[in-house]
Amino acid sequence: MKNVSLFKVSALVITIAFASSFVKAEDKITEKAQSTLTKPAKLSSFSGLIAAFDQDKNGILSQNEAAADQNHLLNVEFNKIDANQDKQIDEAEFNNYLEEVNGKITDLAKSTG
Questions:
Q1: 3-state secondary structure string across the chain
Q2: More confident: 68 or 12
Q3: Which of 15, 63, 94, 102 could form a disulfide linkage to 87, CB 3.0–4.6 angstroms apart?
Q4: 88 strand-pairing partners
Q5: Across residues 18-37, what is the average pLDDT?
Q6: What are phi and psi for residue 54, nearest 5 degrees?
Q7: How far apart are CA 95 and CA 48, in angstroms?
Q8: What's the rounded Cα separation, in Å, for the pair 85 and 3?
Q9: How far apart are CA 38 and CA 80, in angstroms?
Q10: CA distances (Å), 44 to each of 8, 9, 26, 86, 94, in order?
Q11: How much is the mean pLDDT over the chain?
């Protein structure tokens, strides 16, 4: 069996979680919803996150930009990602968050396996 990177699995889990916040079961799939569904694949990297949400194109995601998109998971996790609590997420904070999530998944996998 081919080994799968735990980081890739973590990125997939995060992507699926983001995707689930875009569509509810009772929603009709509209053009806007269909275009929104392409975003989650980009959200497993900082460059994808910035491309999807950075409205002022300054390379940093502000809390207002995250809130404007109404992405529930991003808004819930924002303060966890924003380590220095300056109401902005930079690349280092995002990558540290992904590493933390990856570590938790690794620990969980070890404890159940």
A1: CCCCCHHHHHHHHHHHHHHHHHCCCCCCCCHHHHHHCCCHHHHHCHHHHHHHHCCCCCCCEEHHHHHHHCCHHHHHHHHHHCCCCCCEECHHHHHHHHHHHHHHHHHHHHHHC
A2: 68
A3: 63
A4: 62
A5: 52
A6: -75, 95
A7: 12
A8: 37
A9: 25
A10: 9, 10, 26, 22, 10
A11: 77
State which amino acid sits at residue 29. I
Report the distance separating Cα 37 and Cα 13, nearest Å. 15
Which pLDDT band, with edges at 50, 70 and 90, does 54 fall under? very high
Q: Output the six-digit token pair for 69.
A: 């998109």
Unique residue bearing structure tokens 């919803």: 33
- Residue given tokens 């689930």 in the structure block: 20
